[in-house]
Amino acid sequence: MKSKELLMIIIIIVTPISFSQSVIINQSSNQQEVKNIILLIGDGMGFSHLELGSLVEYGNNNSLFLQSNLLFQQKMSTNEIYGDITDSASSATAMATGYNTRMGKIGVLLNDTPVQTILEKAELMGKKTGIVTTTDFTHATPAAFAAHTSNREHKESIYQQMINQGIEIILAGGQRWISDVNTLINLNYSHITTIDELDTNTDKIFGTFNWNHLEYESDLQYSQDARLTELTVKALNHLSNQENGFFLMIEGGRIDHAGHEGNLTRNALEVIEIDRTAKIIHDWMLSNPNTLFLVVADHETGGLTIGNNHILDDNLPSNFINLEDMRDRRIDRVAQIDATYSSSSHFPWLVPLIGIGEVANSLMSMTCSYSNTNVFDIMNRALTGNIINDCPPPAEILPKPTYQPYSPTDDNKLSLFSPLFLFAILVLSSRLKKRFNLSQL
């Protein structure tokens, strides 16, 4: 057995997790009618955030690409298992696995049983996979697609699990977790840290472009700081030549951070950047129509409300050519908008669920009610070739123990019979059989 596989076992064994009765392993289908799946997540992005971005960029509402009436537009609930208010960990887990869980949990059920994610399923079906985010790559949303742990603060475990998933391209912040680049090299990754290295063309790329999260659009230096749009273009180019297609999760994660800060300027510019990202993907799809493209939010942040007493002038950012001048104009225009936050926390409001392209239209219906778990259902239908647009089932409700408030310092005792240990053995056995063509393991 190669050292890489041994490392995978050791890594997942040491994940802090508690004992559970069973392990859930989802079975993959051989049907692959939809070639590519792209999920773009605006972390914390509510409908008012889109309105704010549209007012800044165009002077009126409903002018962003994501607000186009040519797209499938629905509202989506973002509950966690105990109630209406969720966090990125539980909501991203719901979207990645189809199961509701508790705040703070990554890729596991309420009893800490790990559940196969859509990314893992795509990998097992022979598709390439990628993660792009403006946050630290161990942050809750990207982690929920590629790791399993009882607590989102188990960063080292999340890092170790993510680099051993076989993901072909990861572009993000989080340089602080790369203590030994040889670990990545031994896993066949090219590690890049600057935008000048985005032309790297190797099978596997791991890019970390800032110590923690990427810089806000309002603060970055265009000549040296990575942006969501250019990282998305790189990921699309890197994955597009794959015969079996790919799954790609992209996150504009700093919308949420700006909402927690109550910073309208940062919120507006992050929303405009994710809108530009969606348009880039749409244009790429013109040559790649056999693609499911969804744009969602994991929750709303800030309780943002847009009023009616704007004092907007007619001098739009599009009147300028230079990037810095366009940004300055956007920043000036934010001050002309009547908008307020109700909170510095997550809000239980419905959020956008947007489908772009023919595949999305064939899988979604305006007569349906959608929740965050249904994002998985839609992607899974595309992945398995079950192309129908009847309403997805409601989330499976598992028995709940007595409510216990989430604490970031939660930690669970390790058991060699923990679900993650068993999950690791089963996944690893499958991969070794495939790699070495073994009939038994």
Overview of the molecule:
With 441 residues, the chain is of the alpha/beta class. The chain has a single domain, classed as 3-Layer(aba) Sandwich (Alkaline Phosphatase, subunit A), CATH 3.40.720. The chain has 14 helices and 14 strands. The chain has a 10-stranded mixed β-sheet, sandwiched between helices. Strands 9-12 form a two-stranded antiparallel sheet. A two-stranded antiparallel ribbon has the order 10-11. Helix 1 runs antiparallel to helix 14 and helix 2 crosses helix 11.
Q: Output the number of helix runs.
A: 14
Gyration radius, to the nearest Å? 21 Å
Approximate strand percentage: 5-15%
Average predicted local confidence, pLDDT: 87
Which key terms come to mind for this protein?
Alkaline Phosphatase, subunit A, disordered N terminus, 10-stranded mixed sheet, 441 residues, globular, 14 strands
Write the layout of secondary structure elements.
Layout: H1 3-13, E1 36-42, H2 47-58, E2 72-77, H3 88-97, H4 118-124, E3 128-136, H5 140-146, H6 155-163, E4 169-173, H7 181-186, E5 189-192, E6 204-208, H8 228-239, E7 246-252, H9 254-261, H10 264-285, E8 291-296, E9 300-301, E10 305-306, H11 323-334, E11 339-340, E12 346-347, E13 351-356, H12 358-363, E14 370-371, H13 372-384, H14 419-436
Parallel strand pairs: 1-7, 1-8, 2-14, 3-4, 3-7, 4-6, 5-6
Antiparallel strand pairs: 2-13, 8-13, 9-12, 10-11
